[in-house]
Specification:
Blueprint (H helix, E strand, L loop, with lengths): L1 E5 L7 H10 L3 E5 L17 E4 L8 H6 L4 E4 L9 H6 L3 E3 L6 H16 L2 H9 L17 E5 L3 H12 L3 E5 L12 E2 L2 H7 L2 E4 L13 H6 L5 E4 L8 H9 L5 E4 L21 H7 L4 E3 L8 H19 L9
Parallel strand pairs: 1-2, 1-3, 3-4, 4-5, 6-7, 6-9, 7-8, 9-10, 10-11, 11-12
Helix pairs in contact: 4-6
Amino acid sequence: MKKILMMSVREDEKEAIENWSERHPDVEVGIDEGELHADTVAKLKGFDGVVIQQRSLVEVYAELKNLGLKQISTRTAGYDVINVDLAHKNGLKVTNVPAYSPRSVAELALAHTMRLIRNLELFDERAEEQDFRWIGLKGKEIHTLTIGIIGAGRIGGTAAKLFNALGAKIIAYDIKPNLELNEVLTYKSLNEVLQESDVISLHVDLNETTKGLIGSEELALMKPTAFLINECRGPVVDTDALIAALKNKKLAGAALDTLTGEENFFNFDLRGKELPSEQLKELRAMNNVILTPHVGFYTNVAVQNMVDISLDDVLAIISEKRSDHEI
């Protein structure tokens, strides 16, 4: 019987793992709540495969090789915690889950956009103070807006379709335009998308070409009435530049599901504690900023898909077959 260890398992994933195991009675799936590090790698002794989901770097490639493993799989789209070259040098195939549920992230982008353009954060703030006046908080109807999609891949393309269905004009920038999306969007240069959009929604992968993609120069191109939505990865946006633009009213607001350094605060209960990030403190103090703790992936469909696809990939590789998601 083949054995696979799932690491960093959350309570809400266990049902999904059980569902997969019921369909694969010839595979034993172990569950561990810890991350994969030097002090936990020994837990993989006797296992044929491993699936991770963590924010800290993996640094145990030689150890995995010595334990006889031939792969490492992350049940996330991003795989920057894995040094792919070093993994390959140690004979380890690497897989990710590039499309666990494009709708889950795209729908959050839509939800964030609707909250911003209807000033719902500001209404919530007033209601908290028992101020139920609506004067000064006139909203915008989405069909009157131009939505700029930066990164029109699986998720960005899905977001474009959702916004288009509501009547918005969609323009997009992508280094590899998808002609199948021509019915719902128009491709333009990055500068044109930044200059013309009322809402910018980011959906790019994190790599060397996208780190700092949105900095002070790019933010300066945006309308002062525009909103920025980041549903991809924190380092894509220069946070200091974003804070400066918001403070100087060069931008109307932002919704951020991801931030640089989020591994130090997202998914932690910090009630009554000092926040570990000055940037986080500043953003929290702004009433035109929405913060969510990287939950774009967190839906019933997405969690099941992340488990299913990652385990399918491991089983394929340890059965000497090919996974379609090898990096």
